[in-house]
Amino acid sequence: MDVSDLRIALFSGNYNYVRDGANQALNRLVGHLLKQGAQVRVYSPTVDEPAFPATGDLFSVPSIAFPGRGEYRFPLALSPAVRRDLKAFAPNVVHVSSPDVVAHRAVSWARRRRLPVLASVHTRFETYFRYYNMAWLEPVVEAMMRRFYRRCDALVAPSESMAQLLREQRMNYDISIWSRGVDREIFHPGRRDLEWRRGLGIADDEIVIGFLGRLVMEKGLDVFSDTIDELARRGVRHRVLVVGEGPANDWFASRLPQAVFAGFQAGADLGRAVASMEVLFNPSVTETFGNVTLEAMACGVPVVAAAATGSQSLVDDGQSGRLVPPGAIHHFAEALRAYAVSPELRTRHGAAGEARSLEFSWDRINQTVADTYVRLARQKARMR
Q1: Which residues of the chain have pLDDT under 50?
Q2: Domain 3-181+361-383 is classified in which CATH homologous superfamily?
Q3: Which CATH class is domain 189-357?
Q4: 288, 158 Cβ separation under 8 angstroms
Q5: In angstroms, what CA-CA distances link 4 with 11, 34, 40, 69, 382?
Q6: What was the pLDDT predicted at 49?
């Protein structure tokens, strides 16, 4: 068996209706598989006006809006229509990308038919409850996720630090690395544009501390804003640039009244926004990889990030950025201050980050997943 023999049923809780790093990675993977002759059928909730066109064939799964976060959909069931479509498609590999109800049913469906199941891990769902005053649920959710992932034949994680955490949590022991790539046409230092900054009211000599990502509390918005307050108390001259949008936009704007909010940016505009920062500040602990960290590095922008899964596998502390214990406001502020006052440090660490980013090729990265599919399919065939 090789990649062209694969028939992959891919289950996603959000394939394209809200844009995020995880579903863009899945769409890139499907494009890579299709180019190699594989057949892929995607099962996901859908909406009338998705954030971007889906790559490949997409079949709609019944869903409802998530309570309190209506932009997201909650998959409800492996409906009769979905089951009929699955039977007609006749996959020889099942891929699940979020531990939701439909993914659980899909795993059961595959196991009854002795089909290999690969799960990809895209975010640390168990940590989300910390940001909604429900931290007590974290061990319960972790136990539920363990049950789910151990029913799968293998996992792919986007970083070695995340893979090691999954091993420590006893989620599974067959774990490969499906990293993330960066588009060098979009993200590079040449995208820096002082004229664009001036249009936002940012002076050429202002030190721009950037936030990049969806504006939701689990991205560490509280830590970010508290750190900026501490920087102001120390009298460090700077300007905050926020790139992104989301339901916590008003809260974040009220906490950072002097910040510039550039809104959602995509493609070349996003590359321009990132390259026009002096430093990226990413305090989130929920990422499994840290796409925004890699994008900043590709633009030659040093990164101050939480020493957590994701960025920990990208940033070489003290060489291409700084890794700070999660939530350590004073340490974050000191790392940002060092970059704000030293152009030489920013240049040196930015160049090191750009050099590191050259290692991340999408085709090579996605081939890891394709090879894992083939390996699992061969293993299952030998067991029959």
Answers
A1: 126, 129
A2: Glycogen Phosphorylase B; (3.40.50.2000)
A3: alpha beta
A4: yes
A5: 20, 9, 11, 39, 19
A6: 92
